[in-house]
Amino acid sequence: MQENKAINLALSAPKVNGILIRPGETFSFWHLIGPDTARHGYKVGLTISNNKPSTGVGGGHCQFTNLIHWMVLHSDLTIVEHHHHDGFDLFPDYKRQIPFGTGTSIVYNYLDYRFRNDTDNVYQLLVYTDGEYLQGELRASKEQKSTYQICAENEFFSKEDGIVFRNGTVIRKKIEKRSGVCIHEETIRTNHARVMYDTSGLEIRKTAPSSIRE
Known about the structure:
The protein is of the alpha+beta class. It folds into 2 domains: 1-142, no CATH class; 145-214, no CATH class.
């Protein structure tokens, strides 16, 4: 599955690499990639189906949009379509580098990932594979006046009616470069995801606060 995912990403990366998103334009992942079918050379890879790991032709593309989404979150661009499958925590953390709940879910011709350029800046996506990793860079014709920080807060596991859930919030902070002052803070995701793996090694609370469940 890992080898096939690498093949799928290597097929798709050139279709996105170098794309310009000018003021007023909207980026659509599937508009650029097209059908990820066997006829187009795609292999069977890992997918998420019915809230559990599965396999399917074109598997691995969620990793592609995960990367794009993470870069867009650090920009002035506006996300207009974003789906996720984080109602379930499918895999235990292993070298996690980004907060839980910042992933994406995509299905060709059904669930897309799209963002719009509402600025006067021109952005460019650079993406490529190096044989082991999918690499990405988001460039802009002019320097942004702000930087962004994405972090997780109040993370914990809870047990409710015998079911273990992962809880927490994902915060996005907009920081003015010149002063270093946070000028805006927003909650972009509130997680309450059912844990689908062995929970014997987790520190678990008996119940979750109502503010997390809502």
